[in-house]
Amino acid sequence: MIKTAILVDGGYYRRKIVGFTGHEIPARAADTLYRYCQRHLAHDREDCSLYRVLYYDCAPSEKKVYHPLLKKTVDLKKTSG
C-alpha cells in the first residue's frame, strides 16, 4: 500500500478558498480541502491511499536568507507569497 501525506499552507489555502467559493464556513472548508487532497492521489493505482493531511499556519518569515541558485541574499519580508 502506498500512503501519501500532503502538507497544506493554511494561510494560502484560506485565501484561495474564499476566492473560489466566497465566504466559507470552517467545516465546509475542511471538507473541500479533504476532497481536493483526495483528487491528488494516483487514482489509476488501487494501492494508493491518503495517509494524512498536515496543515500548518504561521506568520510569514521576516528573515534574510541566502538563495544558493540566485547566489544572493533574499529578504523574505519583501517577497510576495
Q: In a nutshell, what does this entry contain?
A:
The protein is of the alpha+beta class and 81 residues long. The chain contains 2 helices and 4 strands; from the N terminus they run βααβββ.
Largest sheet: 2 strands, parallel
Distance from N terminus to C terminus (CA atoms, Å) equals 35 Å
Computed structural class: alpha+beta
Helix tally equals 2
Gyration radius, rounded: 17 Å
In the predicted model, the low-confidence regions spanning at least 5 consecutive residues are none
**Overall number of domains:** 1
Globular, elongated, flat, extended or rod-shaped: what is the shape?
flat
Q: Give the topology string: H per helix, E per strand.
A: EHHEEE
Keywords:
2 helices, 81 residues, 4 strands, alpha+beta, two-stranded antiparallel ribbon, two-stranded parallel sheet
What does this structure look like?
- With 81 residues, this protein is an alpha+beta fold.
- It has one domain.
- 32% of the residues lie in helices and 31% in strands.
- The protein contains two helices and four strands.
- It has helices spanning 10-21, 26-39; strands at residues 2-9, 48-56, 64-67, 72-75.
- A two-stranded parallel sheet has the order 1-2. It has a two-stranded antiparallel ribbon with strand order 3-4.
- A hairpin with a 4-residue loop joins β3 and β4.
- The chain is flat and about 45 Å long.
- The model has no long low-confidence stretch (mean pLDDT 85).
